[in-house]
Write a structure and sequence with these properties.
Length: 277
């Protein structure tokens, strides 16, 4: 899927940049020229749900007010959800196991990592339309045509909102000693500013120093599931450090959310448990 002329102009006008130590900007990596099949060598592939059935097309949408109008959030499945703001639709990690048939098409698609439950080329195609802008880290852009590259630390000013790419990685957990499931710098979390509202999407991560040090977060989407990210108790400990006003546990699969909610709610944080499975 090649970007339209209008999309290309928009990307040129609102190019992503990352500050260098001398205050300059690192060049943006070029987009791929053709779609290719994503890698199946994901450690999560062995434990992904085997059922081909999709969740029923019943989606609960939350509305959060900003100074510039409402932000609507619709959880779908696992790490897949979309937000609507200022007439635009933002998709996150669209996956074919979610219901993609009764949902709005994307103006923006954000992909966090190369694993199959985050990078699903067929699902990205399905939710896209003419002019959709796809934003992803370099490792994803190598497999997904037309993706605009954002690296950890990059900030992108778009007409409706601002987005920053944040680190997401394992500190200790991996398939074997000396290896981790998510290497630092490979994938992106995302931090959005919608007028006066700041929304953080963790990606697949443990409680990293960067995550714990976040400030002034209004809404956070925080992952949890073993062995790939972190258990609910660790996720709760991280959330109580950076103290968002509202948190959505997601990517939790069979995790015990009661363990997460108890300490987080006790810290005065609104925990929104939604049916992602």
């Amino acid at each position: 899927m090649r970007p339209s002329f209008a999309t290309t102009c928009l990307l040129m006008a609102f190019g992503c940049s990352r500050a260098n130590s001398d205050g300059g900007s690192a060049p943006r990596a070029p987009a791929s020229e053709a779609l290719s099949t994503p890698s199946t060598e994901s450690p999560e592939a062995t434990t992904a749900p085997s059922s081909s059935s999709k969740p029923a097309a019943t989606h609960l949408t939350d509305t959060i007010e900003t100074d510039a109008g409402p932000l609507q959030i619709t959880p779908l499945h696992h790490a897949t959800f979309y937000m609507q703001y200022a007439g635009k639709v933002l998709w996150f990690d669209p996956w074919s196991k979610a219901d993609l048939d009764t949902t709005p098409r994307a103006d923006y698609v954000f992909v966090s990592d190369i694993h199959h439950d985050h990078l699903d080329v067929a699902a990205v195609r399905k939710v896209s339309k003419e002019g959709t802008i796809i934003i992803a880290p370099t490792a994803v852009a190598e497999q997904l045509a037309s993706a605009v590259v954002m690296k950890n630390g990059d900030r992108k000013e778009l007409p409706e909102f601002t987005v920053e790419a944040t680190p997401m990685y394992n500190i200790q957990r991996g398939p074997e000693p000396g290896k981790v499931f998510h290497e630092k710098g490979r994938g992106n979390g995302y931090l959005f500013t919608f007028s006066n509202l700041r929304v953080y999407v963790s990606g697949d991560t443990e409680c990293t120093p960067e995550m714990a040090a976040l400030k002034n977060i209004d809404v956070a989407f925080v992952c949890m599931n073993l062995p790939y990210t972190m258990p609910p108790a660790e996720a709760a400990g991280c959330v109580t450090q950076f103290k968002p006003k509202t948190v959505y546990p997601f990517h939790y699969r069979d995790s015990n959310l009661d363990e997460f909610q108890e300490s987080v709610a006790a810290a005065g944080i609104d925990v929104r448990r939604r049916d992602w499975y």
